[in-house]
Amino acid sequence: MKRRRSQTLAQGKTDVEDEVDSEELEEQDDPDPSGKTRTPSAAPAADDIIRPVKLSKSELYKPPTNEELNRLKETEYLFHSNLLRMQIEELLVEVKLKEKRRKHIDAFLHEINSVLSQIPETPERDLVDQSWLRKSVKIPFLQVPYDVKGKFHFLPPSSIKVVGSYLLGTSIKPEINVDVALTMPREILQEKDNLNQRYLRKRALYLAHAAGNLAKNQLFGSVKFTYLNSNHLKPILLLRPGGKDEKLVTVRLHVCPPPGVFKPSRLSPNKNNVRTAWYTEQSSDREGVSEPPTPHYNNTILSDLALEHHLQHLSSCATDFPGMKDGIAILKVWLRQRQLDKGYGCFNGFMVSMLVAYLLSKNKINKVMSGYQILRNTLHFLATTDLSANGITMSKVTDQALPSLADFQQAFDVVFVDPLGLVNLCADVTAAKYRQIQFEAQESLKILDDTTTDGFHLLLMVPKPFIRTFDHVFHLTHLVQLQDACKKMKLLNELMDRGGDYVSTVLPFLLSVLARGLDQRISLLSHTLPQRPEWDIGQAPAKHKDVGLLSVGFLLAPGFCNSVLEKGPAADATEAADFRTFWGVKSELRRFQDGSICEAVVWPGETLHEKRKIPELIIKHLLKLHVGVSESSVSYTGNLTDCVLMKDKNAGTGEEQMVSIVQSYDDLSRKLWNLDDLPLTVTSVQGTHPSLRYTEVFPPVPVKPDWNFYKDEKSKNCLVPSLDKPCPAYIPPMKVICHMEGSGKWPQNKDAIKRVKAAFQIRLAELLKSQHNLLCKPSATYTDVYKDGFVFRVQVAYHRELQYMKETVTPEGMLKSQESEESLQLEKETLHLPYMTSTLHGLQQQHPAFGATSRLAKRWISAQLLGDSFSEECMDLLVAYLFVHPAPFTAPSSPQVGFLRFLYLVATFDWKNSPLVVNLNGELKGADVTEIQNDFVSSRTRLPVMFIATPKDGKDSVWTKNRPSAQILQRLILLSAESLRILEKQLVEPLGNHDLKTVFRPPLDFYDVLIHLNPKQIPRHREAIDQPAKSFVRGFLTTKAEMKNLYFPVVDYDPVQLYLKELKEAYEDFALFFYDSYGGEVIGVLWKPSSFEKQPFKATNVQGRLMDMKSDRSLTVPNVEAMLEDFQFLGEGLVQKVETNTERWNI
Amino acid sequence: MAAPSEESTLVAPAGYIAISIQFSEERPTHHCLYAKEHKVREKVEQSRPLNRTLFVINIPPYCTEKCLSQIFASCGTVVSVELQDKPGPSKKCNKEVRSKYFDHNMPKGFKVGYIVFKKDVGPKELKHLKLQKPYVMSENLQTVKTGIHKWIEDYEESLTDTVDLQNEIDNFMKEYDKKLAEEDEKAKLEEGIPDEDGWVKVTRKGRRPGLARTEAVNLRVMEREKKKRAQKELLNFYAWQHHDSKREHLAELRKKFEEDKQKIALMRAQRKFRPY
């Protein structure tokens, strides 16, 4: 028998991050510029596992050298800890530019310089006459309106200078940009060029002509246009070297005016430089009316003027300040991970550099500080200062001619004025974006202060994509509509100021409408930055509507986000009219319980599923009313994954059922407490079923059995499934542990305790029947109680049973406690599970999204057929981790974003080298966590592959002890990475016609054998991902039907699970079985490669094997044909067919 | 997948004979039971007399005791069939009573069996089996129950008869109480009376109870001793103690440093420092 499979389960790609591009490989040979020694002694062990360090005594106790003491001291002062210092050093090595590359770049820059000065001059023409321009170049400017006065001719630049981060040494990989400023000769510019975009158009023409000439040159691999920070008034030219150096560097050519050409006072934020008459192309009939100020337009021109001065200022700050480079590089990484550094209105590296310079001038940073301290101080400043309320200025001169801070404040949302006192560096930053920056800084500081977490990793290594950061996100798809919105909201002046870019014009107003509408429901509102792509110089620049997507995201406030009522002012108050206009037809008068009559808006909210949709309804309503955006172009991605949790299209997502289960359980526990005539009293009642911690994927629904559907066992008052009918719907028994009081009467022997417990079970059944008229079904180990349509499985426990179970007597006659399989099981059931259930129940009260997130995660893992390989408790804890330790995010408030983060956690967590510590209730202190980590490192090889520690269980990882296996975990990691990629792509691209259930459909070609099941015998058929249009009647009456409780319904009867159990018992050695326990129709079988090797005959090891007739020696091979027949035979009535996927293996 | 030919299935390892069994005529495949005479070097169990016992391995999961006794009926009258997970001593002897409510260790999956015949069986009788065609189970037996049939039956069986269970519990507890009473009686008689070496047994129940002999108690006593000793010791009394504590601190820092270095090296190797 031979296996032809190329890749087995075990050989998944072990390291996804292994993909290394050639350029990076090349770098590795570089000598380390920082001169740090990479000692071979610290090299990792071959199998990538951290081992405890063993140092010899002489090494540990040798006298310290001066150098060593200095370093230790420095670390103490300048960094948090040794580890952090080393981590930051490593990070800087990764992102900073290598010396060798720098030389290449310098050479390239020299060549550019010579090429630029050779560009031919052109004769003078009118600005509107662009026929002289090469045909291969289109002017990178949207010339609306086209007509403008002025003349233009090209002259070689009067100076060519490198500016920006490259000179400062703060540019970071992977995108190395070198900014080169070309200064236009004074002769090109005329008086009044500051008016009506004349300067800006000349600038664009200048660039276009240069581009046309450079494009021919062999030196460049690509010559493209783009906009600086996506500001469409400011095109820049991108030059990249040709050949294999393509990715080495991008040179960005900026064009700026000669110094002093414009009078700064004319460009103050309160001055007008774009005439309404020109912009609207109407003769000025509004004579005498003062023109509106154009602050953004003015700022655009001013920032060109100040370009050089800013560089000088920064480089003077950076002298004898070695930490500044590091600090800025780290801050840039921080911004980039949060997607704050690109697009229109970004907070980019330049602004951060200026901020550091500002802090230096205010003595909040001094020149001996390390990069880490700069990061910390800058974050602290960002977190505590509100630039949108109190702007800051770097200017030290108090000149009356300069505009005042108040002027800036009036014109801009966020104010940060440059050293000249002219330019607002944060002109394009919206207030909402600034709030987000502030929020991120606050969160980051909290992370840094927390000693139990790895702050470095969370702050700088974890990316925070928009879709994973915010609870709800929606995209605006047809941005053309915003053009009409400008008219609707009367934003003509603003539109003129922004040169016709209606997207960025409307944005601040749109956000303020949303902020008012959502009010208390959200804690943070932000948006993505509109980004303009690069384009070929031969193409015309893209229109404003092609900016792509505008996405808005918000963090929900857990307490308020789902409230159905929006209470307004009293009907006779003055604000009432305002309220009515804001909410439109949705507003109505309501009388409240306290007798007041108020304006109010009421949203539909029968079930939690509906309530979760309220923010969506509000947004769609308000956008339509105030901005004129149609509902169809708002693509809302807040609750799309809810659909996999719905059993029935009309019913909700099951939260309501769980609430009624908990109520029924509470009632039962009260009844148990108060039972009369019980020989001992009940000390505690603890539920352990997932429904009682709100994490059951499909919570049981109340049932009333239809007697005709079953055989009845009259003597025992129980129903039994009937052979000729479809399998009855599955009723899960919900386990409830009932502790009995301790007493001297309890026997001291484990077998006797079992009997006494059984007697209690019988007694409980009798008493519940006689005192509360509940239908009960006792057995030796539990009593099933049928109550309110649910079935509870009450299990009596005695707290000292565990002790007796563990007792063994050593040969010396000493009593010793020793764990056995049985005792561990009992410990799990009566100690760990009740504790976990109650703790997670508490977590659900704090974070309402916990339950649904956990259910989504479980549903997904089961849909991927891996449900059996992970215990439910393990999944619950993984999800609890997202809520207890959300950093660098905030605790999710919507199940969908929780699910995305769950996938990310599973895919990226370093299971090999770290324990996942879930600090439930914050019971673990810093020292405890360190202890857990140390224990983990010292005994890694003996511990389960997936190690989850909780306060009650720090050393064992009870829930992952036996499963998953390493191979299954590896597969889960691959699956979750892939699912995350697909799902996020679907959520980010609303225009594609996606099916969100894609990630819930497992690939079946992966399996060797598929066992197809007969839906008639699948009791949970309706829970399948793709719900069957029709299924079978499963023996239950409608909930309203009248009936008497005479017979106990069929409990815990799932033929598929029984079948799987038999398969596993018999064929565990040969194959793995995979099944989606929520209504799957297929069981996937995977042969174990090892069992297919020929093995010598042994009496203990012959199960299912056959003597190999081909070999002379007595070797055995698996009897595969017979096994395949057995699959069919064991599942008689359940199995439809056994399909073999022989392409993957043969005999 | 061609059906294996007749001879192939009948290849048996040395000392065994192969018996192929088939579920029904239509199904071409079969499992192979391997049987040999039961032989043990150590003490012979009463329930498995030598010469009369046949040892069978590779019994498929759906094959019950009843099936086996029918299969081997052709060799002689079968007295008993015992199925186990693994070859080894009989489990029935260890416990006097097997309770159907409290012991759930039924053999699962592929099993081994011990078949006891009324008369001696030699190689001659076994040859009968060897020459036969594959044994077809569904023909010769009342239907073997599998699948839905079996599970429904199992469910029915799992319903507990309360009265029966209560009786069993009462009996067990009666026995248990009796046993305890006897032990108490015995202990009372022995109390205070020295044995032949002159030692007196001290129990927790006597007039002067001793410490319980458990591991936990031992540990506790040791802990207490240690604490007492530690209290007597003075810290920071001698100059060397002060030096030592400083040295220890430095050593601790160094160790931590080495550990961190190792961690960093590992992360670097895994390219964990590339932020994006």
TrEMBL record, chain A:
<feature type="domain" description="Nrap protein">
    <location>
        <begin position="1004"/>
        <end position="1138"/>
    </location>
</feature>
<dbReference type="InterPro" id="IPR005554">
    <property type="entry name" value="NOL6/Upt22"/>
</dbReference>
<dbReference type="InterPro" id="IPR035369">
    <property type="entry name" value="Nrap_D4"/>
</dbReference>
<dbReference type="InterPro" id="IPR035367">
    <property type="entry name" value="Nrap_D2"/>
</dbReference>
<keyword id="KW-0694">RNA-binding</keyword>
<dbReference type="GO" id="GO:0006364">
    <property type="term" value="P:rRNA processing"/>
</dbReference>
<feature type="domain" description="Nrap protein">
    <location>
        <begin position="178"/>
        <end position="318"/>
    </location>
</feature>
<dbReference type="GO" id="GO:0034456">
    <property type="term" value="C:UTP-C complex"/>
</dbReference>
<dbReference type="GO" id="GO:0005694">
    <property type="term" value="C:chromosome"/>
</dbReference>
<dbReference type="InterPro" id="IPR035371">
    <property type="entry name" value="Nrap_D6"/>
</dbReference>
<comment type="similarity">
    <text>Belongs to the NRAP family.</text>
</comment>
<dbReference type="GO" id="GO:0032040">
    <property type="term" value="C:small-subunit processome"/>
</dbReference>
<feature type="domain" description="Nrap protein">
    <location>
        <begin position="847"/>
        <end position="1002"/>
    </location>
</feature>
<feature type="domain" description="Nrap protein">
    <location>
        <begin position="647"/>
        <end position="845"/>
    </location>
</feature>
<dbReference type="Pfam" id="PF03813">
    <property type="entry name" value="Nrap"/>
</dbReference>
<dbReference type="GO" id="GO:0003723">
    <property type="term" value="F:RNA binding"/>
</dbReference>
<dbReference type="InterPro" id="IPR035082">
    <property type="entry name" value="Nrap_D1"/>
</dbReference>
<dbReference type="GO" id="GO:0032545">
    <property type="term" value="C:CURI complex"/>
</dbReference>
<dbReference type="Pfam" id="PF17407">
    <property type="entry name" value="Nrap_D6"/>
</dbReference>
<dbReference type="Pfam" id="PF17406">
    <property type="entry name" value="Nrap_D5"/>
</dbReference>
<protein>
    <recommendedName>
        <fullName>Nucleolar protein 6</fullName>
    </recommendedName>
</protein>
<feature type="region of interest" description="Disordered">
    <location>
        <begin position="1"/>
        <end position="49"/>
    </location>
</feature>
From TrEMBL, chain B:
<dbReference type="Pfam" id="PF00076">
    <property type="entry name" value="RRM_1"/>
</dbReference>
<dbReference type="InterPro" id="IPR000504">
    <property type="entry name" value="RRM_dom"/>
</dbReference>
<dbReference type="GO" id="GO:0003723">
    <property type="term" value="F:RNA binding"/>
</dbReference>
<dbReference type="InterPro" id="IPR035979">
    <property type="entry name" value="RBD_domain_sf"/>
</dbReference>
<protein>
    <submittedName>
        <fullName>Ribosomal RNA processing 7 homolog A</fullName>
    </submittedName>
</protein>
<dbReference type="GO" id="GO:0000028">
    <property type="term" value="P:ribosomal small subunit assembly"/>
</dbReference>
<dbReference type="GO" id="GO:0006364">
    <property type="term" value="P:rRNA processing"/>
</dbReference>
<dbReference type="InterPro" id="IPR012677">
    <property type="entry name" value="Nucleotide-bd_a/b_plait_sf"/>
</dbReference>
<comment type="similarity">
    <text>Belongs to the RRP7 family.</text>
</comment>
<dbReference type="Pfam" id="PF12923">
    <property type="entry name" value="RRP7"/>
</dbReference>
<keyword id="KW-0175">Coiled coil</keyword>
<feature type="domain" description="Ribosomal RNA-processing protein 7 C-terminal">
    <location>
        <begin position="158"/>
        <end position="276"/>
    </location>
</feature>
<dbReference type="InterPro" id="IPR040446">
    <property type="entry name" value="RRP7"/>
</dbReference>
<feature type="coiled-coil region">
    <location>
        <begin position="243"/>
        <end position="270"/>
    </location>
</feature>
<feature type="domain" description="RRM">
    <location>
        <begin position="54"/>
        <end position="90"/>
    </location>
</feature>
<dbReference type="GO" id="GO:0032545">
    <property type="term" value="C:CURI complex"/>
</dbReference>
<dbReference type="InterPro" id="IPR024326">
    <property type="entry name" value="RRP7_C"/>
</dbReference>
<dbReference type="InterPro" id="IPR034890">
    <property type="entry name" value="Rrp7A_RRM"/>
</dbReference>
<dbReference type="GO" id="GO:0034456">
    <property type="term" value="C:UTP-C complex"/>
</dbReference>
